[in-house]
Amino acid sequence: MSKEKPSIPKGTRDFGPAVVAKRNYIFGIIRRTFEKFGYLPLETPAMEQLSVLTGKYGDEGDQLIFKILNSGDFLAKTKPEDVEQGYKHLTRKISEKALRYDLTVPFARFVVMNRNEITFPFKRYQIQPVWRADRPQKGRYREFYQCDADVVGTNSLLCEAEIVQMINGALTDLGLTDFTIKINHRGVLAGIAEAIDEKGREGDICVAIDKLDKIGQEGVRKELLERGITVDAVNKLEPLYDLNGSNEEKLAQLQSILGNTAEGERGLNDLREVWAYLQGLQSKALTAENPSGEPRLMLDVTLARGLSYYTGCIFEVKVNNVSMGSISGGGRYDNLTGMFGLPGVSGVGFSFGVDRIYDVLEELQLFPESSQQSTTALIVQFDKDSEMYALPVLQQLRDAGISAELYPEAAKLKKQMGYADQKNIPYVILIGSEEMASGKLKLRDMKRGEQHDLTIEEIITQLK
RNA sequence: GUGGUUGUAGCUCAGUAGGUUAGAGCACCAGAUUGUGAUUCUGGGGGUCGUGGGUUCGAGCCCCAUCUUCCACCCCA
Fold first, then answer.
1. Which among A66, A103, A235, A341 has the fewest CB atoms less than 10 Å away?
2. What is the pLDDT of residues A216-268, one digit of tens each?
3. What's the N-to-C CA distance of chain A in angstroms?
4. How high is the ipTM of this complex?
5. What enzyme category does the UniProt record give (predicted)?
6. Which nucleotide has its C1' atom closest to residue A207's CA?
7. Distance, CA of A58 to C1' of B25, in Å
């Protein structure tokens, strides 16, 4: 008998009852938001073929995919020279499956496989865990849940506008008041690169610019030069950092800088159209201001996002004044299904990071009390007679749709009351000899500490 | 993946220059209170000091490895 201490892998967590209750509260609000906008649920397997996932997230992403070792004698088909050719070569020989890295690529795979059954535009949402072999930190786990909503089969920028609406709606319903929805466009980034005579280098430029609020303008300048961007280009780039004024004014300023680049023009037109849709939708995201006075929806040319499949608008959401990375992000991808042999299907989607939202709500104490209670009423018993008397009462409560339980033994009152207190049960019903004789049960409101003698019918009415 | 950091009772932490039976608060259990919880009083249980090696007469404390935590890069939900 080995008595090893049990443990769970790095970056994974157990969720106890109280935590699950709060997580379900978040899932519920997100699910309702998605459904309000016409998205329907989809679920896909935890594991995908490795070939489906590789190459979709850039080199960095490929490194972070959890591979599953082939079962059985996984070395059967390998030869000594496979080892000599390095781990990447060997990986393909001993691993054919991998845990999904996000929900967007499996969705694209699903669309391609079911292209003949699907009616386009196809709107789906998906709430499932994903896995990344990242090094864990606060708010960064190796297993975490994403809540994705994507639509494929339409180029309409109404989808982008509705994504802004969904983000604003869900986060507002969760009680958040100080958050920023950043929006940008890959075309704008490409146009900027072209306008400063560094066409095609937007990748390097983005990685550097993205750190602006972290390392400052000087730090970014240094990094850009290290990445081989010319001094000339950096000088042209820097005025873009502090575009000021309203979003409309920013668009106008960008127009004069990028107007004559094809990509830049495409990006600006898309963004203007998104704004027009939002105005039509009377978007609260468009008019809302954060406590700081900044607009909630912000055009941010420094927003980059690493996932390599994005081609159009990109989004990212940051809760202000908490130490937490982005809690939501997404964008448009024009050719994801093309990689699986179905070209010409444009898609756009975004994702909420529930685990981070959870940590933020916890920090800001925004979980409502109702998300933390389990049972509505506990029946306390005193002896065998009262237990038997309580059984039909218990059933009547449940038939009336009230979640109820009977303490399963005639333990001391203190213990039974303590149980209710611990479990955050708001009402206790006491059934003893007096109550059985009179037919009036004692209903105790645990929060107020008051109790009244009531018939079972009266109790049901009150608790319903 | 690179460089750091953390790990002592269920939880939050003490633990002095390596020296007998490792402590506190909270939580838990029992009693004060044989029909009433979150307050009060009394008593009680619980730790092979993350794990595995090593140095030493002797290690919670020193060394190595490993796992874990958190942080900065990288990247990202």
1. A341
2. 788 888 888 888 888 888 888 888 887 777 888 899 989 988 888 999 999 99
3. 52
4. 0.84
5. ligase
6. B75
7. 51
